[in-house]
Amino acid sequence: MYLAINIIGLIVFLAIGWLFSKDRKAINWRAILTMTALNLVMAWFLTSFPIGLTIVKGAAAGFDALVQVSYQGIAFAIPSMVNVKSMDFFVSVLLPILMIVPLFDILTYIGVLPWIIKWIGRGLSFITRQPKFESFFAVEMMFLGNTEALAVSSLQLKQMSAKRDLTLAMMSMSCVTASIIGAYTQMMPGQYILTAIPVNVINALVVTSMLNPVQVSQEEDFIAKIGGLASVAEGTVEADGKKEPFFSFLGDSILSAGRLVLIIAANVIAFVALAALVDKLLGLIHPWVSLEHLLGIIMFPFAWLMGLNPSDAFQFAQYMGEKLVTNEFVVMGKVTGKIATTAFSEHYRAVLTVFVTSFANFSTVGMIIGCFKSIVDREKNDLVSKNVPYLLLSGILVSLLSAATVGLFAW
């Protein structure tokens, strides 16, 4: 019965995309069905086939190995915080970012990461028949994160139409960044984290193709040359056209990683404290009333459509709402000690992990709008700003579709 509900849920989430579409007649249903089928096959392969499981578990083990190596650097500086029975969240999850971010930046500097992004993007465009740059950007944001992907795409954003810029803004709600996947895999099941990432990429194309369908002519379907402004934004090329010296580049990368660690820590502390304050205030009305309970009521229908029993669905709905109001790290921190236990069924474990694996939350909206404001003209930025509800809807729908897709094959 729950499998049937899960299937119905997947159809309902697609129907929501159609219902809120800006131009229902312009939706390319052939492309939508092709991408949905591709996602189902990919989720099935990565969760049900021995070779798929081996690939995903091998990738998860690789990220875990990177984190373990990073602990050596942390232990050199603060051994009293590493050589303990149980490390704090800040040390075990956030400080490894100080090594992993520079590692991915080095791969960018030597050209490996841009090469991977380019060819995966071309393959994705060929398979899905989506515009070249939208496919390219979908892969780019999987590795670089939303603001970073937008920054290195500044040249393209300035040349594209305002409607296509809105599409990219909506897609940016559903990204992650490869440099913090190691942090995720320390808190949640790695195999589902790494399955969620490519599934999110395809679903970002599916959802934006429904919510904001744009007809792209052959003349408009191009990718601006990566160089000049884009390379300067990426940080590998200076304004005079010369490549930045490696150790100068590495130093900037390490400083950026440090800022990222502080930003994440500040956000987690602030959001958890503010949520506790809201709970205190709501508790004055009635002891049962809390932010989690209210969010659980609002999100319950969507959680139930994942194929969960009512009790698990209500708890999942609370996690869903909390993730959207705060961020993924807050929810991951709450469940990390128990998600691998019998308190969670395999299906519940899968859908929860996939749902929280993205940057889709309220604070991300502000980051995206701020990034567009610094790159494009006022007309394009105003269009993005006026469509904040669509940005939120896009991020939520992608997370729901991805969780429902992977959940079909995890029981």
Automatic annotation (TrEMBL):
Return the Pfam families for the record.
Nucleos_tra2_C, Nucleos_tra2_N
Q: Name one GO cellular component term.
A: plasma membrane
Q: Which family does it belong to?
A: Belongs to the concentrative nucleoside transporter (CNT) (TC 2.A.41) family.
The protein's UniProt keywords, in alphabetical order, are: Cell membrane, Membrane, Transmembrane, Transmembrane helix
Domain Concentrative nucleoside transporter C-terminal residue range list: 192-407
Membrane found in the keyword field: yes
Q: Which PANTHER family match?
A: PURINE NUCLEOSIDE TRANSPORT PROTEIN NUPG, SODIUM/NUCLEOSIDE COTRANSPORTER
Stated name of the protein: Nucleoside permease
Any single GO molecular-function term of the entry would be: symporter activity
Compartmental location: Cell membrane
Query: What membrane topology does the annotation report for this chain?
Result: Multi-pass membrane protein
Q: Which domain of life is it from?
A: Bacteria
Where do the Concentrative nucleoside transporter N-terminal domain residues begin and end?
8-79
Instruction: Check the record and name the InterPro entries matching this protein.
Output: C_nuclsd_transpt, CNT_C_dom, CNT_N_dom
Residue stretches spanning the membrane: 6-21, 33-56, 89-116, 167-185, 257-278, 285-306, 350-376, 388-410
Q: What is its main location?
A: membrane
